[in-house]
Structures are given as structure tokens and as C-alpha cells.
């Protein structure tokens, strides 16, 4: 959801910024821009991807070592050259890039217009630039004070970076609700929305918190609150490596990330799944475990793929730990005055740890006294820092907009939590707990077996490349997998796809089935197998084209399906860790055949930091 990069140091700023924007492009890619300070302030911006911006500046002889850049995901104002960031103030003294939404921009714009301000585009960001200009003119204050005063007048969220030609060799940044961090190098400082643009230069970072700002110049940086209270911030060390954020020979990040799942699931379990002792150790929640074990109920909140993982969690916690669970769309949670109190535990799930709606759910639940736990992938992310305790998924950076390895890592954490809670609540007998723990340790090898079938699936993907619709059906643990399969397909191939609990098909969607409709059934030999077979027969009777994800032992489903993708057998609660993988591969291959931009699908951004 918009990426910001800034640099001040001894390198050519445009190189650092363009390179960094390319790394952040997964956050938004409808337009890009750069502002470079070199005595003068030069702004270049255009519609399209960062490469378009690069073409415009490639031959410039700018040697600037101070600048800011932006890659946009449009909220207010269509993606075009004018609405691209940076935005000038009316006197063209300074330029500003922004991630987030200024919610009261319309009222501010009207007021500023009456004072003679002329706006070139439709963005909320341009209004903020003009507001700072107006405040500085009226209050006759220094620039930093004007920025502080303006930020206090805006409602909404922001991560901003500003360069001002009258404040040479300095950058001002501020955040509220949109992530920003500083990378601290030797005589150089980097600014970025996340760590990926800076990891090749330094592993020392300072995370800005909400309502904080930093004034960065060649001598260093000073962090203060927007109310001007000076702060001393901890410098963190990143564990990320450059290799993790490169494609390693794969044509797309998504394919690389699908293929990493053997390792990411193993990494997620490392040190936590103690097979020899029939034990699970989750250090991140050990101090609050008693409260979790005794909670009245668990409320899981998340968005998108993470919400699907949460639904798998509901089946896991209820079945293995006999714990009442509700799964909420984080985006809806706070809007209905939810009944939650200190007897409850909220568990939020987020790959990025920055999703605005999930963060809002965290704050709502905390304000009502609930213990709030997080399952996050990005270390040091806002949700990871604001939750009371939590568990990292350790899946490494996920760059493809379509979430894959984050989902299986989230489900791995949820499976371990459910087993641990089942044991601690006395609801899981030792024998079954031991079987589950042992079987979890075999999952990475089973994932590898599925990944070896990637080429064999190609034929099915090619055949259905131009199907206009897909239906995905599953039951029990694999109902959320059906939803996830449908989401994967629609987001990267733009094919309309719907996921349903298989039995719900009879209550409406069956009307869609004819000889042209591919119906993907997730049907393993679990306690719903018989019912699933009846559903498959119902689809067959209407000539639907059945693509089954099934396990080795399920000869009935293999016989009934037109196409069967066979995966290794596992215990029912762990099956989503395997069944989802062919669905990820199917959607990837179809999107490639359709010549879609797999890693950067239209209209989407990796991390949705606006509400
Ligand atoms: O970073 P988060 O896990 O909080 O993101 C939630 C969703 O935005 C995300 O899962 C989205 O649905 C993905 N594009 C799905 O592939």
C-alpha cells in the first residue's frame, strides 16, 4: 500500500531510491516518483511501474545524495502523472511522499482553496503539502514546527517523507498508522516502508512508532513525537538477508515462495515441535499461556488469506482443544460494538503485521481488556509490537502479492497452538497428541512430494486457462482451503472463482454447474469423505468438470474425478497444510498461461495499510 524510500549519505541517491522502490513495488505499482535535492529540488514522476520512472531519469546527470521516492497504490485520485508522488506545496519549495489516507482532506482542501491554494491533482497528499505551506506562512514558524502543526490537524493515517530546498541536506519523516523505518549505515541513513530496500546496505534499523517523526541530516537523526518531545529509540538488528528478497532463478516470487514451503514449514516448527518429548514449546506465548488455557473463548481476527488460516484455526482449536472460537473479519470487528472482555483472548493473524483493519481490531480488543496475541511473519511489524504476546511464523519475506508460504506457516503455528492447548486443557489424549506431533514433523517431506508434481499439473492448468468461472468445494478442515484456492485463482488470474462448503452447493451454486464449469473438490479420506463423494456425484450428474485434490488412499474420489491430483495422506487436522499446495500451483500456472502479472496483480497491494 504505497512504498516510501529515502536516502541521505554519500551514494547517488537516485540509484538507492530506484533500487529500493523496485523492492517495494509489491506494495503498489500504479505510478512512481522521486524528489532529489541538489541545491535545487527536482521532482520526476509518472504513471506506471518504477521502470517507467527509471527510464525518465536514467540519463540525468543528477549527482544528488539526498532524496525521497514513492511507488503508489491509488486511494484518492486516479493513477496518472499528476497524482503520482512526490507532491509539491504551492510555492514549490518542498515535496512530500505519503502512504496512508488523510480522511479530512476534502474539508481541508475547501478551506485552503478559499485561501487561494490551487491544486493540480485529486490526491489527499497534495492537500497535506499545501496545509504545511499555509501553516508556515501564517504562523511564521520553522519548517519542522509547521509539519508538526499540520500533522495534528489531519485525521487518518500517514507515513510521510519530505525534502525541502530551503532545508538542504535534510529529510523529515513522520508516521501514524503507516510503517516507516530508518536504516542506520556508516555516514548514511536510509528510510523505507519496510526493510527490503535497505537490507543490502545495513542491518541496523530504528522503527518509528505512531505519532513519531524523525529529522534526518548528514550528522545523524533525531526522533521526537509529533508534539515535539525528544525520544531515544532502540536500534534493532535485522535478521533478513538479500538472498531472501531475490527470485533465486525462479520466474516469479510466487513460484519461489510456493517452492520454499518445505523449508518454511520446517523453520516454523524448529525448536517448537519437540518430537522426542511429545511436546510443543511456544516461547512467544509462554508467559500468557495460563490465561490463554483458561480463556472463556478465543476470537480470531484477520483479513484475506490470513482470515482463511484463522478459519482452519477454528476447526483446530475446537476439535483438538475443545475451545470455543469465533473467527472475525478484522475489517468488520470494530464496527459492531463487539462483546469482548478480559475473559476472552483475541488472536490476530497477519503476514505483514501492518494490515490496518487487523491493527484496528487489536486496539479495539485491547481497549476492552482482552489479552491480544498475534501470529505475524514480519518481525518488528506494528501488529507484532502492539500485541501482548505472539508467535512469529519465520517464513521469511513474502514478496508475491498472493500469499502462499505465509498461509502454510500460519496454519503450522495454529496447529501447534491447538495441540499445545489441547494438552494443557486436558482435552487431547497422549496417544493422539503424540501422533499429531510426529505427523507434523513429516509434513515438510510430504510438501516436497507434492511440489514434485508441479509439472504434471501443467496439463490441467493449460486445459482450464480460459474457463470464465471456477467453483471450489471442501468440507471441515478443507472448507477454508476451498476458500483460499478460490481467492488465489481470482487475485492473480482474474477468473471469477467461488469457494463453498461442499454441502452449501445445493443451496444455490449448483445452478451454475454445467459441462463448462470446472469444480475443484478438496476431498481427502477424512470423516466427511462419504458426504464429499455424494457432492462429487451431484456435480457429475450435472456434467461439471471435476478436478479433485485427494490423497493416495482415496480411490473412490480418484475414480470419480475427471482429473485427480494425488497428495500424500496425513491426519485430518493437518491436511490443509498439504491440500492447499496444489491449489496454489494451479492458480499460478493458469495465471502464467493467461499472461497475467503474477507477482503484481492489478489493483492489489501486498500490505493493505489503509482501512
Ligand atoms: O498481511 P496480512 O496477512 O494481514 O494481509 C491480509 C490480506 O491482505 C492478504 O492475505 C491478501 O488477502 C493476500 N493478497 C491474499 O493472497
Structural write-up:
The protein is α/β, with parallel strands linked by helices. It has 3 domains: 3-238, 4-Layer Sandwich (Glutamine Phosphoribosylpyrophosphate, subunit 1, domain 1); 246-450, 3-Layer(aba) Sandwich (Rossmann fold), CATH 3.40.50.10490; 453-611, 3-Layer(aba) Sandwich (Rossmann fold), CATH 3.40.50.10490. Helices cover 36% and strands 23% of the residues. The chain is built from 19 helices and 27 strands. An 8-stranded antiparallel β-sheet has the order 3-2-4-1-10-9-11-15, covered by helices on one side. It has a 7-stranded antiparallel β-sheet with strand order 5-6-7-8-12-13-14, covered by helices on one side. The protein has a 5-stranded parallel β-sheet with strand order 19-18-20-21-22, sandwiched between helices. Helix 18 links the parallel strand 26 (545-551) and strand 27. The longest helix has 22 residues, at 430-451. The chain is globular. The chain starts with a strand and ends in an 18-residue tail after the last helix. 5-amino-5-deoxy-1-O-phosphono-D-mannitol (M6R) is lined by residues 303-306, 350-352, 355, 358, 401-403, 487, 491, 607-608.
In short:
The protein is α/β, with parallel strands linked by helices.
